[in-house]
Amino acid sequence: METRAFFDDDTYTLTYVVFDPTSRDAVVIDPVMDLNTLTWRTSTRSADEVARFVAERSLKVRWVLDTHAHADHLSGMELLKQKFGAPTAIGARITQVQDLSRGLYNMPELPADGSQWDELLADGQQLDAGSLKVEAIATPVTRPRA
Prior knowledge:
single chain; alpha/beta; Metallo-beta-lactamase, Chain A; 3 helices; 21% helix; 34% strand; globular
C-alpha cells in the first residue's frame, strides 16, 4: 500500500490517495474543491491534480471519503464521485454536524440526514475497497468541563 499526499496551498489542507500499486485499487480521502475567497469562484485545480495522478497510474478509485465536515475548504467529493464513478462515505455523526450547522447558519433547507454521501460509517465499520480494507475510526470532539 502506498499513500500520495496533495497539499493545497490556499487552504493548507491535504488530500490523500491511498492505493495498492499491484491491484491498482485506490481510495481518495478529503478531496479539495478550490475556492477563491476574493472572487467567490470555485475551480477544480486540486481535484484535477488528483485525477491526473489516478489516470497516470491507471488506478481504480473504489471510494471517495470525507473524514469530517470541511470548514477549512469545500469538499471535492461530488466532483470526484462523478469523475471516477466511485461511491462516497463519511462518519455517521455528520448528521449531528449538519443539524447544528442548519441552525448556526440559518439554513433550514439543508438536509441533515447525510444524504449527500452514499454511505454513513459507524465507528469500526469496514469498507471493502478491492484489495484495500478501510476501517472507520470515530474521533469525536469532547468539550472541556467547566
